[in-house]
Design a protein that fits this description.
The protein is of the alpha/beta class. 49% of the residues lie in helices and 14% in strands.
């Protein structure tokens, strides 16, 4: 799932600013009326707040206030926030005059709300900027980028991108096409691969985007490189003069630092659709965790009585674009199940990189029951709430499965993995070919929609109630 990061940045800062207006408005009302709720609870309070939020939103559409947000100094931020609040105050005064509401406005509330909003913006913007630039390296949501270029251009390009302080972007490594510089560092960024091993490195690493900067004379060779990266589900950005390169995927104009680029990307998803998917995830996870709590009270003692050990099972899985996270389940196997897996490998019934066998001897009696009803998956609602997983997505592979992936297999990881998905509602354990699962997952990603997610959720409920395809 691919969205333009500038949209995401603007939305986050916009929400911070709206929160400041709301907090300032109600705080000033409390101060003005000394906490006597009866004096200020009326319809006009909400009406004026909506006007204030509307005017702030209008400011965003008219003046693009977050342009170069992460490059602004403290003084520039101060001047910027002053202008925004003065413009907002002028708009509000004009609206109040036009609707004949000015005489009923409290000047204290009106002026002090703008003062609070100004101070709030200055403090919150500065803290947010510091946090993102200081800790984006460690953030799971930060876009991890590889730079692919030549030895001649590497120093200039990396230096310029770092100086731009691009939000939510962390350069994790450099690939040099014309030299074997593996082990060197350029502006503190390691050279991680060369032309011969760059695809293998990319498959095994966390990579969200790749920026390729090269000359037009290399167009034919670069076309194959771009296509290989796109087959992994990774967004590829290139210097703008290569826009007309024919690659079978969507493309749009974007920027990396100061460089204008053409981005060869998966299906571009509107930001509001991504927001709605995450909102559904959070609501679903909250409901699911309440159910999980009560199930744990009943199921926990039964798990421990049959097989001493923890109630929950945790295992490292591979998520979006190669990120590692811990997945949680109710323990349905004996505690030595992972060690015994090696003994059972040759009994694997799956064709490919997944492991499944009927009547797995590592599964406990209570484990067979909860697996049949898919109850063992309930703790994954915690993964959904954290953002490691979504309600609907692709199955997250184990680390050892992932280490055997070919390039095109990684495309199924270009989206956040799901608690359920197409595979689970299309036969689950009856499907025995890993390549078939990959094809289903890639088709889901390329044709994703909220309607399709809701359909999969409804099918999942039916599959779980009928226990179809489960073992």
């Amino acid at each position: 799932m691919n969205i333009k990061q500038s949209q995401k940045q603007n939305l986050i800062i916009y929400f911070f600013d709206v929160l400041g207006i709301i907090l300032g408005y109600f705080l000033m009302i409390l101060l003005r009326f000394q906490g006597d709720v009866r004096l200020y609870v009326d319809n006009m309070v909400l009406y004026r707040l909506i006007i204030a939020i509307f005017i702030l939103t209008l400011n965003y559409f008219l003046f693009y206030p977050n342009e170069n947000f992460f490059k602004r100094t403290f003084i520039k931020e101060l001047w910027h926030n002053f202008k925004i609040n003065v413009i907002a105050a002028a708009f509000m005064a004009t609206v109040a005059y036009l609707i004949d509401d000015a005489k009923d406005y409290s000047r204290f509330i009106y002026i002090m709300t703008m003062v609070f909003s100004f101070i709030w913006m200055q403090v919150v913007h500065s803290l947010y900027r510091y946090y993102m630039l200081r800790f984006k390296k460690y953030s799971q949501t930060s876009q991890k980028m590889l730079i692919v270029t030549t030895s001649e251009k590497a120093d200039e390009i990396i230096g310029n991108i770092i100086k731009e302080k691009t939000w939510n972007l962390w350069i994790t490594g450099v690939i040099i096409l014309d030299q074997d510089w593996i082990g060197r560092k350029i502006h503190g960024i390691p050279v991680v691969a060369n032309k011969e091993n760059m695809f293998l490195y990319t498959v095994r690493s966390v990579v969200d985007e790749i920026f390729i900067y090269t000359s037009e004379s290399n167009r034919i060779a670069i076309k194959d490189i771009v296509q290989n990266f796109r087959d992994m589900g990774i967004s590829v950005k290139m210097n703008i003069d290569l826009f007309n390169m024919e690659i079978a995927t969507e493309k749009y104009i974007d920027k990396v630092g100061q460089y204008n680029t053409v981005c060869f990307a998966p299906k571009i998803t509107p930001l509001h659709m991504v927001f709605m998917k995450r909102l559904i995830d959070i609501l679903g996870a909250c409901i699911g965790l309440v159910i999980t709590f009560f199930i744990t009270l009943l199921l926990g003692p039964l798990i421990k009585i049959e097989s001493p050990g923890p109630i929950f099972f945790s295992q490292k899985r591979v998520g979006r674009n190669g990120r590692i996270f811990n997945i949680y389940k109710f323990r349905s196997m004996y505690v030595d199940a992972e060690e015994r897996k090696k003994e059972l490998i040759e009994k694997n019934e799956m064709n490919g990189l997944m492991f499944k066998i009927k009547k797995d001897p590592r599964v406990t009696r209570i484990g067979r029951i909860i697996r049949k009803a898919s109850i063992d998956e309930l703790p994954q609602f915690w993964n959904v709430l954290k953002g490691d997983m979504s309600l609907v997505g692709t199955r997250p592979p184990t680390v050892d499965e992932f280490e055997h992936y070919e390039g095109y297999h990684k495309q199924r990881l270009s989206m956040t993995p799901g608690l359920t998905g197409v595979w689970q509602v299309s036969g689950r354990n009856d499907i025995q070919d890993f390549e078939e699962i990959v094809a289903m997952d890639v088709d889901y990603i390329n044709n994703w929609s909220l309607k399709k997610d809701l359909g999969i959720i409804l099918k999942t409920i039916r599959v779980v109630l009928m226990s179809s395809g489960a073992r």
